[in-house]
């Protein structure tokens, strides 16, 4: 199969179930909102080495307090891990960020007492009440007060939607990867958690070193991968997490369609690991066709 003369490999990505939280974060203006986004979603690219995978879903002006806001998605394998990481990230990066408030950004799912556990920072001076139609805790801070919704929804999502962009030059690969991420960005319910939405270090399960659970995927390293087309000099990976399988598929499709419009792209492929990574098969021909 080809799109715009680019080969779409007859293969699939292995996605898997993850728990996720959608936070709605608000701030007084765009500057402090961006500070909150950057701090709270930092070092959250892959659960290979990070506790959670996180990113910006979208920005919004439709918020409980009428201020600029952003929906942030956080993913983890287990509920307990996700709750612990949220306590740390909200407590260390959002409670501390000037003017920021935090609300539940989802409905349904299981409710976790995230705000109720963060309240202890108030050292007995915190108060529970209603604000903007939400049940919240108000925690006194030196700026005034930090508002956090008492309960946060935890739902089941899908992680590991992925495709690989194989390019003849680095600049072509970067252009295609950037175009793919920009096409995915407006889509609801998805994030691309790597820096700038792009990973330059595709990995495989396991390593020759017993202390590593993942290592470089030599199959997709041009200097090491004998099965790559001869003209390929670099490979970029786009990883997508979403609130459900259809959202991930839609993001993969838009990303692929945008990537193949760029010149000097040879092939779109995907890594898979004989079912060891995930049970959800996302076939590239079905998605891009």
UniProtKB/TrEMBL annotation:
Residue span, Formylmethanofuran: tetrahydromethanopterin formyltransferase Ftr C-terminal domain: 144-287
Pfam families: FTR, FTR_C
Cited SUPFAM superfamilies: Formylmethanofuran:tetrahydromethanopterin formyltransferase (SSF55112)
Enzyme superclass (EC): transferase
Keywords associated with the record: Acyltransferase, Transferase
Occurrences of domain Formylmethanofuran: tetrahydromethanopterin formyltransferase Ftr N-terminal (ranges): 1-141
The enzyme's E.C. designation: 2.3.1.101
One of the GO biological process terms: one-carbon metabolic process
UniProt GO MF annotations: formylmethanofuran-tetrahydromethanopterin N-formyltransferase activity
Assigned protein family: Belongs to the FTR family.
NCBIfam families the UniProt entry points to: one_C_fhcD, PRK02114.1
Name of the molecule in the record: Formylmethanofuran--tetrahydromethanopterin N-formyltransferase
């Amino acid at each position: 199969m080809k799109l715009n003369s680019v080969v779409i490999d007859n293969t699939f990505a292995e996605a898997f179930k993850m728990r996720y939280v959608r936070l709605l974060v608000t701030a007084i203006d765009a500057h402090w909102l961006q500070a909150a986004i950057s701090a709270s979603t930092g070092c959250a690219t892959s659960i290979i080495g990070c506790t959670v995978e996180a990113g910006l879903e979208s920005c919004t002006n439709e918020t409980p307090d009428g201020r600029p806001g952003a929906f942030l998605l956080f993913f983890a394998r287990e509920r307990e891990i996700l709750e612990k990481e949220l306590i740390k990230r909200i407590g260390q990066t959002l409670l501390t960020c000037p003017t920021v408030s935090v609300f539940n950004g989802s409905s349904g799912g299981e409710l976790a007492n995230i705000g109720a556990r963060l309240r202890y920072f108030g050292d007995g001076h915190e108060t529970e009440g209603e604000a903007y139609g939400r049940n919240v805790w108000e925690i006194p801070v030196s700026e005034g007060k930090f508002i956090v919704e008492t309960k946060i929804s935890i739902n089941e999502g899908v992680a590991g939607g992925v495709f690989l962009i194989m390019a003849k030059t680095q600049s072509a690969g970067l252009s295609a990867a950037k175009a793919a991420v920009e096409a995915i960005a407006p889509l609801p319910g998805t994030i691309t958690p790597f820096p700038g939405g792009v990973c330059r270090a595709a990995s495989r399960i396991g390593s020759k070193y017993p202390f590593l659970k993942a290592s470089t995927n030599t199959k997709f390293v041009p200097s090491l991968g004998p099965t790559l087309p001869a003209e390929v000099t670099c490979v970029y990976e786009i990883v997508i997490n979403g609130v459900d399988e259809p959202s991930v598929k839609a993001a993969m499709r838009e990303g692929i369609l945008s990537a193949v419009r760029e010149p000097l792209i040879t092939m779109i492929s995907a890594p898979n690991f004989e079912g060891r990574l995930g049970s959800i098969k996302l076939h590239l021909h079905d998605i891009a066709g």
